[in-house]
From TrEMBL, chain A:
Any one of the GO CC terms: plasma membrane
Keywords assigned: Cell membrane, Membrane, Transmembrane, Transmembrane helix
MF (Gene Ontology): branched-chain amino acid transmembrane transporter activity
Topology class, membrane: Multi-pass membrane protein
Subcellular location field: Cell membrane
This protein's record includes keyword Transmembrane: yes
Protein's recorded name: Branched-chain amino acid ABC transporter permease
Membrane-crossing residue ranges in chain numbering: 6-30, 37-59, 65-84, 96-119, 125-143, 175-194, 215-244, 250-270, 277-294, 300-322
Cross-referenced Pfam families: BPD_transp_2
TrEMBL record, chain B:
Pfam families: BPD_transp_2 (PF02653)
InterPro entries: ABC_transp_permease (IPR001851), BCAA_transport_permease (IPR052157)
Protein known as: Branched-chain amino acid ABC transporter permease
GO CC, one annotated term: plasma membrane
BP term (GO), one: amino acid transport
Bilayer topology annotation: Multi-pass membrane protein
């Protein structure tokens, strides 16, 4: 809807919800008051994890396909950056220019994702999670054992982002803005894409594949194309991840991390593309500050319990919790103000108590 | 079997041929050209036996997984955790009492009870919501892995089974004939043969239980149509609890068996979860026979991969899965969805 107004010219600044403006100003101004640790380790890292989780959210939330292999796709792109570009391990490192490396890595990741999709969409529902989990574990073991291409157990270190326009892109502030730009770009793309013909068809397929097939839609193709787009998102996130860490090893793409991504998406909420980012911020904050409260070793326990509680009591994550809370408040407001129409079935309406 | 031969004559012939070749390769003394091509016969026979016994172990783990799925449509991704929990509990009991068999029994019962608790406390509340159940099992496996790491630390444990289970025996298979004319027989660890025997016994036992008992009949009816079974007056929830107990108990049982054959360490849960997943994807979800066939194929593929192309063993397993999914998405023995 916003998009239509945007292109028809009847779009004005007052159509933007105040919360969006506040968030945008906060995100842009964030580096000006945060310390380097908060900019880099918290801010940029949350955005990267959020972007990977966004690719999962897009598949799971709109396509109904819970893929545990999105981190594997991101890791594949990260490995390609180390293999095609430069690294300090003396293995591979073909020294391609950075732009070519990035393009090839993203496209290969997207193709890899498409392949995973093609394998898993042959079956439906619960099988997807099993097959993608099997793919993730198999890739993890393969990378760990292959020394010729992937340098086995130790992986690659010394992977650097390029120095461009005189800026070293791994410095906290430039890197933060780089991840922010990519994350916001994909957020917008997914948000806009969910209202496109393709996005709507995908959501319809999620709800009733048989009916869509009967209507003449190619269900399998829609799903595979969704995997392709998710692969592009995950590929970019993987490149950011390897630049962020400076290294990539089998541990980067382990099953526990793949499940962390699922935890982030589920805890954040799969109904709206903002969910994965909320989940990622919560996850990274917990990861960094839970050690003040409990033993560092027991971090997984905290994450596991948080995940379990969310799945048990709020299936649509933090977003669902917020929506329910808001509806409650609004309901009270309505009771006082009389009839006011509220749009509860659209989670995208970040609605407020705006009174005319 | 007869049906299969009639409907898929070509594949029946191929399978028979492969079996014949394998049998010939096992029992004949290898001519020189074969040794040149494949390496020593001892390696081949050992790999084959390792593959079959590993398949037996995988079957023990995967049969519980597929049993639970078949009836409840619940993909229990905490199955690997149950395997590891059984191994640890069995180790503790065996270590304190000095009786390996007691450890085996306690592991079965303790993990079965944990399965019952899961079914009653959690899964019953969200019946019919497959995805949420699966997500819950992921949460449980994260917590369980961490709790087990806290209790048993990262140390690797080694069982000490009774002496007569240890050691090696010589098989009536000739490895090479020395120039002096004496035949060298192949020796093989007794324990691995025991694993295979246990797997076969469990498989046969499950088959009898499912096909020849009244409760088994109810379970099979439940697989076909849960609602209709409930309508005929059977307490379906009770059947669910029973099946969950058996499935989980088998995982714990396999934990002790497998833990004795290899070792017990953190990370084994993911390994056996992956094995179960691939086995049931290949064999067909919900089918015990499928689990047996899948376990055999995956066990053999893994061991032959390890022996003949070490780096790419995992890829071989994975390739099998992809090919099966491409040709027969519901698995080799899976019914139509």
């Amino acid at each position: 809807m916003n998009g239509r107004r945007l292109f028809s010219g009847s779009f004005s600044i007052s159509d933007i919800h105040p919360a969006v403006i506040v968030t945008a100003v906060f995100l842009l101004a964030y580096p000006s008051f945060a310390s380097d640790f908060f900019i880099f380790q918290i801010g940029a890292y949350s955005l990267i994890l959020g972007t990977i989780a966004l690719s999962l959210m897009m598949l799971a939330g709109y396509g109904g396909m819970v893929s545990l292999a999105q981190l594997t796709v991101a890791g594949f792109a990260a490995y390609l950056v180390a293999i095609l570009g430069d690294n300090s391990m003396g293995v591979m490192g073909l020294g391609w220019p950075w732009w070519l490396t990035v393009i090839v890595a993203v496209l290969s990741a997207a193709l890899f994702s498409t392949f995973i999709g093609a394998v898993s969409v042959r079956t439906e529902g619960i099988y997807t999670i099993m097959i993608t989990l099997a793919v993730a574990v198999a890739f993890f073991y393969f990378v760990r054992q292959n020394y010729v291409l992937f340098n086995g157990f130790s992986g690659f270190a010394g992977v650097e982002p390029p120095t461009l326009f005189g800026i070293y892109w791994r410095d906290p502030m430039p890197f933060y803005y780089l991840t922010l730009a990519i994350a916001v770009g994909f957020f917008g793309a997914v948000y806009y894409g969910s209202r496109s013909t393709f996005g709507l068809a995908l959501q319809a397929i999620r709800d009733n594949p048989r009916r869509m097939r009967a209507l003449g839609f190619n269900v399998t193709l829609h799903r595979i194309v969704a995997y392709f787009f998710a692969g592009i998102i995950a590929g970019f996130a993987g490149i950011l991840l390897v630049w962020f860490n400076g290294r990539v090893s089998p541990g980067t793409i382990g099953v526990d991390v793949a499940i962390d991504i699922l935890v982030i998406a589920v805890v954040g909420g799969m109904r709206h593309p903002i969910g994965p980012f909320l989940g990622a911020v919560a996850f990274v904050l917990l990861e960094n500050f839970a050690i003040d409260l409990i033993d560092r070793e027991r971090f997984n326990m905290v994450i596991g319990i948080a995940f379990l509680l969310v799945v048990l009591f709020s299936p649509d994550g933090l977003l669902g919790l917020w929506n329910r809370f808001r509806n409650k408040v609004r309901f009270r407001g309505n009771a006082l103000l009389g009839a006011e129409r509220v749009n509860t079935d659209d989670p995208a309406s970040t609605g407020s108590l705006k009174k005319n | 079997m007869k049906n299969f031969a009639e409907r898929h004559t070509f594949w029946a012939i191929v399978i028979l041929l492969i079996a014949a070749i394998f049998l010939w390769m096992i029992f004949t003394v290898w001519p020189d050209w074969l040794v040149d091509a494949m390496g020593r016969k001892k390696t081949f026979v050992n790999t084959l036996l390792n593959g079959i016994t590993l398949g037996g172990l995988y079957f023990l783990v995967a049969s519980g997984f597929t049993l639970i799925f078949g009836l409840m449509r619940n993909v229990n991704l905490a199955h690997g955790s149950m395997y590891l929990l059984g191994a640890y509990i069995g180790y503790e009991v065996a270590d304190r009492t000095g009786n390996w068999f007691l450890g085996l029994a306690v592991a079965f019962i303790a993990v079965a009870i944990s399965g019952i608790l899961l079914q009653i406390l959690i899964f019953r509340r969200m019946a019919g919501d497959d995805l949420r159940q699966t997500l819950v099992t992921i949460g449980i496996s994260i917590i369980a892995a961490d709790a087990m790491l806290a209790i048993w630390t990262g140390t690797t444990y080694q069982f000490s089974p009774p002496d007569w289970l240890f050691g090696a025996t010589s098989l009536p298979i000739i490895s090479v004939i020395r120039s002096s004319g004496t035949a060298v027989y192949i020796t093989y660890p007794v324990y691995r043969l025991v694993v295979l025997a246990v797997a076969v016994a469990v498989g046969v036992g499950l088959w009898i239980f499912l096909n020849r008992t009244r409760i088994g009949m109810m379970i099979r009816a439940g697989v076909n149509d849960r609602d209709m079974l409930a309508a005929t007056g059977v307490n379906v929830q009770l059947v669910f609890v029973l099946v969950f107990a058996i499935g989980a108990g088998l995982a714990g049982f396999a934990g002790v068996i497998g833990g004795t054959a290899l070792s017990v360490a953190p990370g084994e849960d993911v390994r056996y979860l992956l094995a179960s997943l691939v086995v049931v994807i290949v064999g067909g979800l919900g089918s015990i026979v499928g689990a047996a066939i899948g376990a055999l194929i995956i066990g053999l593929a893994e061991q032959f991969g390890l022996a003949y192309f070490p780096t790419y063993g995992v890829v071989l397993t994975f390739l099998i899965m992809v090919v099966v999914l491409a040709v027969r998405p519901q698995g080799l023995m899976g019914g139509r969805q």
